[in-house]
Inverse folding.
C-alpha cells in the first residue's frame, strides 16, 4: 500500500515541475508511455490484492496465498482502489490514445465498483456462497502451467490458511439470505471432493514420499473439517428475519451501472425489453399464422389464444432436428457455410490465418453439450482458441430428444453464429489485434454478449437461413430472405435474452413472484418447465448478470441504426463492423463515443 501512495506523490511532483499544467503537458507519446507504465504497476498491485483472481487469469506468482477476508483486508482493498483512483485523476484523459482512453475508463469503473461492493452492496455480509475455497484448489490440481510437484507445493502452502479463512467468514456473515445460505452449503459440501478425491489422485501420481504425503493429508483433513464445520454452522445459524434475496431498486441500479456500463439506465432498458417482447410476439404470431397450415394441416382448428398458436407451430418445427450421432458433424459442417456467406455478402473481414480449432469438448466439460468457445487467458497468448462441441453419446433417449428439439436445425445454426462466426470467435480475433491486458481482464460482458446476439440478427437480416443456404448440391450460400421458419425460431431464441432482462429486473426490484416468473418464461417465452425452473434458481442467486445479453444487443443495434441515419448512402455495414470491433471488449458507450468523435473529426 505504501508503494501506491508514494507513487501518487511522485506524480504530483512531476505535475508541479511541469508548471502546474498537469502531468499530460508532455508530448502525447510521453503521456501514453507513462500511462502504459502505470497500467503495468496497477496490475501488479491488483494481483497482490486479489491473488485468487490472478491465478484464475494464468498469473501464478501468488498461487500459495489464500486471502483471509477480514475487515482489515477490506480496508486494504479499499485503499488500493482509492489510491489508484487518485493516480488516474492525475493522468486525466487528455492526450491518451483511444486504447488508453477506454482502458482508463475501465480501470476507473473497476475501482469504483470495488469500493461500492465493499461499502454499499456488502455481499460479504449477506451472501455466504462467496466463501468457498475448493475452486481455487481444484484449479491448482488441474493446471498445466507447472509441474505437478510445484503445484502440489503451492497447494500445501495455501491449505494452511483454510481454517482461518472460514473463521473470518463466520465473523463477516450477518443476516444472510436463505437462498445464498443454501447455495453456500451445497457448493461447499460439493467442493470437499477436491480434497478427498482429486488430491489423493494427484498425490498418487506425484513422486512425493510417504512422509510428505502424510503432512499434506493432515492439512487437507483440517481444511475439510473447517469446510464441514462452516456448513454446519450455516445450517444452525439463527436467522429469524433473513434478508431478502431481492437486491432492491437502489442497489440494483448501481450494480447495473458498474457491471454493465451501459449508455442506458436500467429503467430505459426494462422499457425497451418490454416493448421488444410485444414486438416479437406480434411478429411471431404473423409467422405462426402463415405457417399453420403447412405444419398443422388444413383441418386443424387454430387456438383462440395467440401465444398457444405460436407454441403449437414452434413445437412442430422443432421436430426438425439432427440425430444424436450427427450432432457434432452438423455443427462442424456449418462453419465453412457461415464463412462463405459472410464473404459473399461482404459483412466483415474474417482472417483466414486464424482458423477456429474445432474439438470434441474435453472431459471436464462433459455433460454440458452444445458448443462453447475456450479462449487462452491473457498470460497465455500463444494458446489455441477452441470451439468445444459437445457430444450426446451416452445420453438416454428421452433427454437427447428433448435437447435436440431445443437445438433443432434452426437454433443450431443460430448457436453457431453466436458462439463462433461472426459471434464470439470473430470478436475475439479482432480484440486480440488491439492487445490490452486491461480489456482482457475487465472485458465488458455486455459488449461481448451483445455482439454475439447482434450477430445473430445481422446474419438473418442479410438473408442467412434462406431455404437454399448451405444446400450442398448447389454449393450455394443462399440468396434472398431467411425462411419464415428461421425467423420464427430466431424470435423464440431472441425472446430468451429479452425475457431474461425482464425477469431479472422484475424479480429484484418489483417483487415478481415465482409463479409470475414461471408464467413469463413458459407461456410468454415458450420455455420448457425445467429450463424455467433452473432460470428461477439462477435469478434468485445472481443479480444483473442476466441483463447483459439484451442490453449489449440493444445498444449495438441502436448505435448501428443511428449511424445508418447519420451517414445515409455512405454507411457501409462491413466498415461499421470492423471499426466497431477494433476497440476491443470495451463498453459499447465508449466505443460509440470514440467512433462518433472520429466521424466528426473527418468531417471537419
Ligand atoms: Zn425427434
Ligand atoms: Zn454468448
Amino acid at each position: 500500500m505504501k508503494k501506491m501512495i508514494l507513487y501518487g506523490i511522485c506524480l504530483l511532483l512531476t505535475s508541479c515541475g511541469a508548471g502546474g499544467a498537469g502531468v499530460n503537458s508532455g508530448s502525447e507519446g510521453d503521456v501514453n508511455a507513462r500511462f502504459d507504465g502505470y497500467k503495468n504497476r496497477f496490475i501488479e498491485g491488483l494481483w497482490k490484492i486479489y491473488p485468487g483472481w490472478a491465478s484464475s487469469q494464468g498469473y501464478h506468482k501468488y498461487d500459495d496465498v489464500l486471502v483471509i477476508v477480514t475487515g482489515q483486508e477490506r480496508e486494504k482493498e479499499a485503499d488500493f482502489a482509492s489510491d489508484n483512483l487518485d493516480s488516474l485523476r492525475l493522468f486525466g484523459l487528455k492526450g491518451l490514445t483511444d486504447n488508453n482512453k477506454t482502458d482508463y475508463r475501465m480501470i476507473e469503473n473497476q475501482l469504483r465498483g470495488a469500493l461500492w461492493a465493499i461499502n454499499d452492496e456488502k455481499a460479504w455480509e449477506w451472501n455466504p456462497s462467496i466463501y468457498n475455497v475448493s475452486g481455487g484448489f481444484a484449479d491448482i490440481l488441474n493446471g498445466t502451467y507447472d509441474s505437478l510437484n510445484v503445484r502440489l507445493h503451492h497447494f500445501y502452502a495455501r491449505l494452511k490458511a483454510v481454517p482461518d479463512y472460514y473463521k473470518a467468514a463466520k465473523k463477516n456473515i450477518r443476516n444472510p439470505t436463505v437462498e445464498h445460505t443454501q447455495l453456500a452449503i451445497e457448493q461447499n459440501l460439493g467442493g470437499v471432493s477436491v480434497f478427498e478425491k482429486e488430491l489423493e489422485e494427484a498425490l498418487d501420481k506425484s513422486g512425493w514420499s510417504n512422509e510428505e504425503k502424510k503432512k499434506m493429508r493432515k492439512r487437507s483433513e483440517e481444511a475439510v473439517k473447517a469446510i464441514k464445520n462452516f456448513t454446519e454452522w450455516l445450517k444452525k445459524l439463527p436467522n429469524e428475519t433473513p434478508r431478502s434475496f431481492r437486491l432492491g431498486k437502489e442497489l440494483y441500479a448501481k450494480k447495473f451501472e458498474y457491471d454493465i456500463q451501459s449508455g442506458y439506465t436500467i429503467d430505459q432498458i426494462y422499457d425497451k425489453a418490454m416493448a421488444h417482447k410485444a414486438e416479437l410476439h406480434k411478429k411471431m404470431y404473423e409467422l405462426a399464422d402463415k405457417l399453420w397450415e403447412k405444419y398443422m394441416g388444413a383441418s386443424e382448428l387454430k387456438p383462440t389464444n395467440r401465444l398457444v398458436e405460436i407454441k403449437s407451430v414452434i413445437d412442430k418445427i422443432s421436430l426438425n432436428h439432427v440425430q444424436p450421432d450427427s450432432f457434432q458433424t452438423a455443427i462442424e459442417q456449418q462453419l465453412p457455410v457461415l464463412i462463405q456467406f459472410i464473404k459473399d455478402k461482404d459483412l466483415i473481414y474474417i482472417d483466414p490465418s486464424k482458423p477456429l480449432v474445432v474439438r470434441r469438448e474435453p472431459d471436464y466439460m462433459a455433460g454440458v453439450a452444445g458448443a462453447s468457445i475456450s479462449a487462452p487467458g491473457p498470460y497465455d497468448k500463444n494458446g489455441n482458441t477452441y470451439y468445444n462441441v459437445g457430444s450426446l453419446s451416452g445420453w438416454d433417449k428421452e433427454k437427447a430428444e428433448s435437447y435436440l428439439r431445443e437445438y433443432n436445425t434452426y437454433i443450431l445454426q443460430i448457436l453457431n453464429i453466436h458462439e463462433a462466426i461472426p459471434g464470439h470467435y470473430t470478436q475475439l480475433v479482432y480484440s486480440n489485434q488491439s492487445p490490452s491486458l486491461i480489456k482482457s481482464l475487465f472485458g465488458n460482458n455486455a459488449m461481448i454478449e451483445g455482439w454475439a446476439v447482434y450477430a445473430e440478427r445481422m446474419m438473418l437480416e442479410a438473408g442467412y437461413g434462406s431455404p437454399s443456404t448451405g444446400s450442398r448440391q448447389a454449393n450455394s450460400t443462399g440468396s434472398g430472405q431467411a425462411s419464415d421458419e428461421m425467423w420464427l425460431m430466431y424470435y423464440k431464441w431472441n425472446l430468451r435474452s429479452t425475457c431474461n432482462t425482464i425477469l431479472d429486473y422484475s424479480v429484484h426490484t418489483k417483487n415478481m413472484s415465482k409463479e409470475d416468473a414461471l408464467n413469463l418464461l413458459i407461456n410468454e417465452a415458450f420455455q420448457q418447465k425445467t429450463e424455467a425452473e433452473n432460470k428461477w434458481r439462477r435469478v434468485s442467486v445472481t443479480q444483473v448478470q442476466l441483463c447483459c445479453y439484451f442490453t449489449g444487443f440493444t445498444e449495438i443495434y441502436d448505435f448501428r441504426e443511428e449511424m445508418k441515419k447519420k451517414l445515409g448512402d455512405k454507411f457501409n455495414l462491413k466498415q461499421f463492423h470492423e471499426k466497431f470491433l477494433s476497440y476491443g471488449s470495451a463498453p459499447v458507450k465508449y466505443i460509440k463515443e470514440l467512433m462518433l468523435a472520429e466521424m466528426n473529426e473527418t468531417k471537419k
User: Anything to note?
Assistant: Residues 467 and 473 are 13 Å apart (CA to CA). Residues 1-24, 472-476 have pLDDT under 50 and may be disordered. The beta strands are 357-360, 371-374, 386-389. The pocket of zinc ion (ligand 2) is lined by residues 418, 424, 449, 452 (CB under 6 Å).
